[in-house]
Specification:
This protein has no helices and eleven strands. By secondary structure, the chain is mostly beta strands.
């Protein structure tokens, strides 16, 4: 079984930066894609960014493109989300997820880490 553990959330002022980490442990970890999703209070969960584990192509939702960067360290089985120029609307619980196949629902989820951006 794979476990995903996020860290790096916290409280930051608008315009500041945070770096989220998601470390995978458990059985041999070879996902097809890893992703960051977020859920703000009263809103549905949304995809923020994802990265193909082996090749590295990335995707970003329009609202974070140019401000957030997803990356991975294959040796450490860790995916990162560097968040710059943070805005109050970025406030949410951020979840790491992984999927073994190219399409379909995510197979593994982390417990989430809170990011709060004050104005």
């Amino acid at each position: 079984q794979v476990q995903l553990v996020e860290s790096g959330g916290g409280l930051v002022q608008a315009g500041g930066s945070l770096r989220l980490s998601c470390a995978a442990s458990g059985r041999t970890f070879r996902p097809y894609v890893m992703a960051w999703n977020r859920q703000a209070p009263g809103k549905e969960r949304e995809a923020v960014a994802r990265i193909v584990w082996n090749d590295g192509p990335t995707y970003y939702v329009d609202s974070v493109r140019g401000r957030f960067t997803i990356s991975r360290d294959m040796a450490e089985n860790t995916v990162y989300l560097q968040m710059n120029s943070l805005k109050p609307e970025d406030t949410a619980v951020y979840y790491c997820a992984a999927r073994d196949s190219r399409y379909g629902p995510y197979d593994y989820w982390g417990q989430g880490t809170q990011v709060t951006v004050s104005s």
